[in-house]
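Service request form, structural biology core

Requester: graduate student, group of Dr. S.
Request type: structure prediction, single chain
Budget code: on file
Notes: please return the result as structure tokens.

Sequence provided:
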Amino acid sequence: MGLSGSGKSTLLRCINRIHDPTSGKVTVAGIDVTSLDRRGLERLRRQKFGMVFQRFALFPHRTVIGNVEYGLEIRGVPARERRERALQVLELVGLAGWENRRPDELSGGMQQRVGLARALAVDPDILLMDEAFSALDPLIKREMQDELLTLQSRMQKTIVFITHDLDEALKLGDRIAVLRDGRIEQIGTPEEIISRPASDYVAAFTAGVDRSKVLTASSVMMPPDPVIRPKDGPHAALQRMRRHGISSIFMVDNDGKLLGLVSASDARAAADRGESSLINVLNKDVSTVHEDDALRDVFGFGNGTSWPLAVVDGEGKLRGVLVKGAILASLSHPPDSWNKQLQQPVGRDQHAAL
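Core staff response, request fulfilled:
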């Protein structure tokens, strides 16, 4: 991503050598694209790349399915096979039933879906998208972004997406390269770009971003220690809570999966009753969030309760604890002060109600 004139489209066109780089190399699957002759380059483009353009670039004289079949047609795929493939991808992009319409009978969003279907029909390893959604109305643009994320979760393709829209880059990108005057200022995850800008330019570029949409629970969580396990009794739990100055503690199994939480008052009551196990006082109704959840999505979890908020992974393993003070610091302080803020000692019980 970058401003107009920063070199985004030029870089994209160097990847499939629509433009010849003046220096350096472009390698795709170990192949030096810059060294290929015309025939080798054509073969690579047909086998590896699909491209979606900003202005759709549909053939007005062809029907929807004719446009989608085009890449397969120039590959020499038999008519019946390419028709079946085209129908499959049209259904994939939500255009089943529209195959016999002309492009001028479709809305802008539908035309862009045809362009996407045409690129997908050849089953490329790499999808190149040059500001593919910038010509669309805002509502249709958001719908197409959501559609692309859904398709990507199913296809698992490599997608190089060019945009000057920071919100779009943050929404779609696993990694973002910020360009300025033909040079890459920084490459990183959306969270790295926002929280650790590599230059004043990147910091200024991202200054207006709603950080709660980008930062995740894992970026501000505290380590989950101390924890207890099912073998531990009330006295062991109380000792660890006293040592760390907390009034509750998580219980995990031997694989680190979260089982629940024990409060200091319940552990003391169990000890007074002479119980050797904490199972009877284990609170299993603990609010949890996933480590990849955006901070804006964790607001409201745990409201009305004084229990800590646990951060778990996809297997239910305890990865950390969210502290309210750290969340507020990460959202209210400039990036270069976040690490200092998060390094300040904070009691775990300050994360009570988010």
